[in-house]
Amino acid sequence: MRDIIWLFLLFICDLVVVSPSSVRRVRLIDHTSYAISIIQKTMSKVEQRCWCNLKVDDVHVIVNEDVLSEAIYAEVDLKDGFVVSIQKIGIIHNTIQQKWLPLSGNTTRVEVHSTVKMSDVAVGFNVIAKEHGKVIHSTGLIVYPDVQFQFTITKHLFTDEITVDVVGVLARTTNRMQFTPENHVTKVFTAIFNSTTTATSVERWARDILKPITLELATKEIEFPRICYNCAT
Q1: How far apart are CA 221 and CA 28, in angstroms?
Q2: Which of 12, 14, 22, 155 is the one with CA 20 to 30 A from 202?
């Protein structure tokens, strides 16, 4: 019976050691390299599937404006939107951080945060404008200077479970959509189009495309950083 009690006490001691609140200078070893590796492989897999598979939701806009005493009324549909090109992809290095969350109900966990930035993301649409029964076809292209994806990879220390969250953020832009060919309806549409309508698509890319890829990498391919207790630095 005494041996069982000692084993129980040793087990309690081990649990206390695991808690960051009771161990000084606890940290992950080289979490920066881990974050860079997992983001690079995630984006590489997305690229292999082709950027054009980053689809954009259809947009329906009613144009009802007076221009130089002329009333312009038309229905404009942006369809089949997708990413045409991306100028640059990079990791924002000062966003790579490790965050230790305090012990609460046996749910101690550590998070690795990082953000990737896509620069000058060109999105193209097929454009259909209907005015007085007449249908006008054209193509539209808008460039978003800043699209970001915020990654959080969490390890639950009591269960070793790893979870992933990715949030897509579309920065506002003053860039206007360019149309080929241009007509009197698209000239008005360009001035009134709300470029942030694409934000829901960016959020969907994060949730439905990037997150599953990152989760598979984090659970099956890339090992989570080891923990160092009472580290000197």
Answers
A1: 18
A2: 155
Domain that holds residue 109: 29-224
Task: Please state the length of the chain.
Answer: 233
Tens digits of per-residue pLDDT, 116-130?
A: 999 999 999 999 999
| pLDDT digit string, tens, across residues 81-114 | 999 999 999 999 999 999 988 766 666 889 999 9
- CA geometry: angle 171, 46, 197, nearest 5 deg: 30
Q: How far apart are CA 215 and CA 207, in angstroms?
A: 11
Q: Is residue 12 part of a domain?
A: no
User: Within a domain: residue 19?
Assistant: no
Q: Quick count: other Cβ atoms within 10 Å of Cβ 148?
A: 17
Question: Is residue 14 domain-resident?
Answer: no
Q: Structurally, how many domains does the chain consist of?
A: 1
Residue 233 placed within a domain? no
- Residue 9's pLDDT band, with cuts at 50, 70 and 90, is very low
CA separation for the pair 201, 197 (Å, rounded) = 8
